Amino acid sequence: MYRSHSCGELRELHIGQKVTLSGWVAKTRDKGFVVWIDLRDRYGIIQLVLDEDRTNAELLEQARNLGREFVIQVKGEVIERASKNANIPTGNIEVLVSELTILNESKTPPFTIENETDGGEDLRMKYRYLDIRRNPVKDNLIFRSKVAMEVRKFLSGEGFIEVETPYLIKSTPEGARDFVVPSRMNEGQFYALPQSPQTFKQLLMVGGMDKYFQIVKCFRDEDLRADRQPEFTQIDCEMAFVEQEDILNVFENLTKYLLKEVNGVEIDSFPRMTYDDAMAKYGNDKPDIRFGMEFGELNAVTQHKDFGVFNTAELVVGIAVPGAAEYTRKELDALVNWVKRPQIGANGMVYVKCNEDGSFKSTVDKFYDQDDLAKWAEATGANPGDLICVLSGDANKTRSQLSVLRMEMATKLGLRNPNEFAPLWVVDFPLLELDEETGHYHAMHHPFTSPKPGQLAMLDTDPGAVRANAYDLVLNGNEIGGGSIRIHDKDMQATMFKHLGFTPEEARAQFGFLMDAFQYGAPPHGGLAFGLDRLVAILGGQETIRDFIAFPKNNSGRDVMIDAPAPIDNAQLKELSLKLDIQE
Ligand code: ASP
């Protein structure tokens, strides 16, 4: 028997008991006549003690020579500690060692295995297995497991069946590039790894599995963006014989359940906001509604004077930043420069200080009088003491610039409390999105999303205006899930492919299986997927999804521990009928 107890579980009630423990040497402190060892396992740390009075000399010597991260087994007796440590749960006791076995030695680890480590990100990733021994990483993985368990518990309770769908498939478009896998047995042919199980879950609906879920890996070969992983995990769901409202209710309940079970937070019901409202009020389809600073549109109250910048702008829009009227000239200049950085790209920023005495002081006093500025304050909801920040220009660009400014100011003002949760549904997304570069429309969600009833004909006349039965769940300014009611009619699906620029032949080659299935009694259906990594990070009150993934890839999509991706040898290339390395 390697252990009778775990290191973390021993308490005062165990005093007097003989125990066997196994774990890693976190630390040894050698005071000459006495040696203390911190022994660590997944469950915690326990102090071991050996001294000249009570331990034989050979054993004491052995303890002295233990290196950090050696794996040892000890037998001993639980005793009360002379000097107690209130900071750890086992701090009132220690184990007086009578036997010690080294189970395995360890090289000195390249960084300290402590909550605050001296290891940089790269080093920690290269030795991730050592990083996982540290509490912050270990606790995140345990937390993730709990969230996943609770998801399974809730969904099974609702009658959902977990079904695995294949990883070696044909492209499922979610707007990214596919990772492909060459087939050895089918020369010159490739599988694609699923960007999502979208088509399979729809086929499961045709198969009559009316409530499906799966905690599943998805693969998207996207350009690098901060905190994206090329492989990530979804809680993927689909239901048949449902309308949008049914789906929103089930997954709102799932989210409430998780917030309650995992965070102890109770939330009544989630607000619903249309995409158009979200864009107009927050400049963003995933608004953080933990704080105000809603957009005030100012065209009507700014375009009547001689200020050319505003008069020629498609949109003039502002936010009232609470308490920021006190900003110094230097701080304000810094803010203006900040919005003008290429990453944000504003041409400039007009601001108005709303003084405590009710007067206003703006950077455009030359053009606007106090009455004008009072109207701006009204439109942005500004109070005395606030600073109104105004951007102008092309409507879409200006909205997204102001949205970035809004988030920045909220962060600065400490309004983004990670322990406060503000979920909402954003609904009525546009069906299509114009690609500015090619001038073509793409599916905003994916090509299987259904338009709002009665709007199909608009695809010919005003495609950009067609709204979809599509929805996102947003939590604290992050999209944590999204889905839609699907097209289940083969003709409508064919029409949709046509509008997305597929020839009938292309549509058949890529999605023939789905269109065929739709000829055999496809039920009305819809669903959604939550990003598990992101959800877990937010519930865990943290920002980075990497910290909740056991073996994540770095920002270049590499696993630096196993050193992947890597070249393969010519023999393997040949077997796969891939071109040989031209060097040889
Ligand atoms: N397949 C979609 C996605 O990955 C989710 C859905 O529509 O259910 O975003």
Output the keywords.
584 residues; alpha+beta; OB fold (Dihydrolipoamide Acetyltransferase, E2P); BirA Bifunctional Protein, domain 2; Gyrase A, domain 2; 3 domains; 8-stranded mixed beta sheet; 22 strands; 23% strand; globular; binds aspartic acid
Can you give a write-up of this model?
With 584 residues, the chain is α+β, with helices and mostly antiparallel strands. It has 3 domains: 93 residues, OB fold (Dihydrolipoamide Acetyltransferase, E2P), CATH 2.40.50.140; 260 residues, BirA Bifunctional Protein, domain 2 (2-Layer Sandwich); 122 residues, 2-Layer Sandwich (Gyrase A, domain 2). It contains 17 helices and 22 strands. The strands form 5 sheets. An 8-stranded mixed β-sheet has the order 6-9-10-22-21-20-17-11, sandwiched between helices. The longest helix has 23 residues. Catalyzes the attachment of L-aspartate to tRNA(Asp) in a two-step reaction: L-aspartate is first activated by ATP to form Asp-AMP and then transferred to the acceptor end of tRNA(Asp). It is an enzyme of class 6 (ligase). Its main location: cytoplasm. It holds the Pfam family tRNA-synt_2.
User: Would you tell me the overall average pLDDT?
Assistant: 95
Instruction: Give the CATH superfamily of the largest domain.
Output: Bira Bifunctional Protein, Domain 2
Small molecules held by this entry? aspartic acid
* The level-1 CATH class of the largest domain: Alpha Beta
Task: Write down the Rg.
Answer: 30 Å
CATH topology of the largest domain: BirA Bifunctional Protein, domain 2
* CATH-derived architecture of the largest domain: 2-Layer Sandwich
The number of helical segments is 17
Q: What's the helical proportion of residues?
A: 25-40%
Give the termini separation. Answer: 56 Å
GO molecular function, one term: aspartate-tRNA ligase activity
Organism: Maribacter hydrothermalis
EC number: 6.1.1.12
Keywords: Aminoacyl-tRNA synthetase, ATP-binding, Cytoplasm, Ligase, Nucleotide-binding, Protein biosynthesis
